[in-house]
Amino acid sequence: MRKIKTILISIVVLVILFVFGGSDDLVAKIENIIGNSNQEVLSDLEGNSVHYSDLEYAEIKTDVNDQIKTYKGFVLSFNSENHTPNWVGWELLSSEIGGTIPRSDRFWTDDEIIGCPAHSDYKRSGYDRGHMIPAADQKWDEDAMNDCFVMANMCPQDGSLNSGAWNTLEEKCRLWAQRDSALVIVAGPIYKASDRKTIGENKVRVPSAFYKVIVAPYLETPRGIGFVYPNMTAPGNMQNYVMTIDDIEELTGIDFFANLPDDIENEVESVSSFKEWNRR
């Protein structure tokens, strides 16, 4: 829908320019909106800002259950066999950091999601209801906060990981978003064939690990990084858990950030420098 609006607006502006006149540079800029299906010019016509559409969407390359639904502030792919998401994707803007909406803590089951578990599935299971998109990223809007407590956004997560290394990574992402203006993040569980443990009446499958892939696509030199944490206590420094996005794509069978131009996608997915990301 956003692309359609952009194209319609661009056509109107082109007509206006044709009737009333305009510089060649201005016309070329508007034509670029129509000609490039992977990007939108979000600034007014005097600016040069580029926004890549739908980067938060991922494409699963293997034959798994895949129900996609968009919520306020994020989108996810849900697996009705595992009763957990395959991936959850969102854009985190610097303007969204530091919101004042209080944490909801009202977990809810989405009846539109096939196999969405119940809050009770996690009770006395020994596992936390681990958010893939964290509540602290959604403090900018009340509906966004409420939506992130949908059980489709949860995975059985070891409590020490949820409150420890995973939480630290979430906090880092917010700091990086403040510094870099915008990040696009996708997170989810990793299952091995041997992961047969389930919890609750709905038999929610417990993953052996979690991934998070992150890109800062709007920097002069865009960059990306990935992390994989085992579903247990994760001691040591964050850099011990760094992987390239390419490696995580191979591990998960999921293609991330496919709407980036190929040259940028190849660069950000093949290199992961924690030192570069962690600079102030």
Kindly state the number of beta strands.
Answer: 15
Percent of sequence in beta strands = 25-35%
Proportion in helices? 25-40%
Strand order of the largest sheet: 4-5-6-9-12-13-14
- The unreliable regions are 1-20, 23-48
Distance between the termini: 37 Å
Characterize the main sheet: 7 strands, antiparallel
The SSE string, one letter per element, is HHEEEEEEEHEHHEEEEEEHEHH
Overall 3D form: globular
Number of helices: 8
Given the helix and strand composition, which structural class is it? alpha+beta
Overall pLDDT level: 87
| Rg calc | 20 Å
Brief sketch in words of this structure:
With 280 residues, the chain is an alpha+beta fold. The chain is built from eight helices and 15 strands.
Helix and strand topology:
Blueprint: H1 2-20, H2 24-35, E1 39-40, E2 51-52, E3 58-60, E4 67-71, E5 74-79, E6 84-93, E7 128-131, H3 142-147, E8 154-157, H4 159-163, H5 165-180, E9 182-190, E10 198-199, E11 204-205, E12 209-216, E13 223-230, E14 242-243, H6 245-252, E15 254-256, H7 262-270, H8 274-277
Helix pairs in contact: 1-2
Explain what you see:
With 280 residues, the protein is an alpha+beta fold. Helices cover 28% and strands 25% of the residues. It is built from 8 helices and 15 strands. The protein has helices at 2-20, 24-35, 142-147, 159-163, 165-180, 245-252, 262-270, 274-277; strands at residues 39-40, 51-52, 58-60, 67-71, 74-79, 84-93, 128-131, 154-157, 182-190, 198-199, 204-205, 209-216, 223-230, 242-243, 254-256. Strands 4-5-6-9-12-13-14 form a 7-stranded antiparallel β-sheet, with helices on both faces. The protein has a two-stranded antiparallel sheet with strand order 1-2. β10 and β11 form a beta hairpin. α1 runs antiparallel to α2 (24-35). It is globular and about 50 Å long. The two termini are 37 Å apart. The model is unreliable at 1-20 and 23-48 (pLDDT under 50).
